[in-house]
Amino acid sequence: MHLSSGSSDSVEAQRIEGAARGLLRGLGQLTQALFRAGEFGITRSQAALLDALEPGPRRVTELAAATGMVQPRVTVMLQKLEEAGLVERQRCAADRRAVETSLTPAGRDLLEGGRRRMAAVLLAALDGGVEDSERAVGAARDAIAVLVNAMESETS
């Protein structure tokens, strides 16, 4: 039986939809497992804020956009992170009305330590079950980057 191009497009769309469901489920499970392994001692949302601050100081609006959180939630979490000594806030040099938040050395250390623990647990989990752990992790990272880039170009 010959399928029309419209029908093959429908079959392809169904296959991609099924793969996307599995991808979302798998990424969610992997994210949870890696975060638990990192033993950060803070919430995943707080860790996401610290991660978003790693490149440099940012305003609340930028952090909200980068993390997908609403601004009031970001503000409350930044207050808690500041009280814990993980971030600091200061007036923006370019616009004295605005406030920027940056990582403190303690915040940077917390991120780096958690990432080291995550990597160690991941490598231990792959040890013996995967021939080339570094290649497997790199391939997964690259595949995710392709999907992220496709989604970003689609939404911009």
Commentary on this structure:
This protein is mainly alpha-helical and 156 residues long. It has 6 helices and 2 strands. The chain has helices at residues 5-38, 44-53, 60-67, 71-83, 105-126, 133-155; strands spanning 87-91, 99-103. It has a two-stranded antiparallel sheet with strand order 1-2. A hairpin with a 7-residue loop joins strand 1 and strand 2. It is globular and about 55 Å long.
Distance between the termini: 40 Å
Helix content: over 70%
Shape: globular
Radius of gyration: 20 Å
User: What number is the mean pLDDT?
Assistant: 89
Derived from helix and strand composition plus strand pairing, the structural class reads: mainly alpha
Note the beta-strand portion: 5-15%
Strand arrangement across the biggest beta sheet: 1-2
Largest sheet: 2 strands, antiparallel
Number of helices: 6
Low-confidence stretches: none
Set down the secondary structure blueprint.
Elements: H1 5-38, H2 44-53, H3 60-67, H4 71-83, E1 87-91, E2 99-103, H5 105-126, H6 133-155
Antiparallel strand pairs: 1-2
Helix pairs in contact: 1-5
Short structural description:
A hairpin with a 7-residue loop joins strand 1 and strand 2. The longest helix has 34 residues.
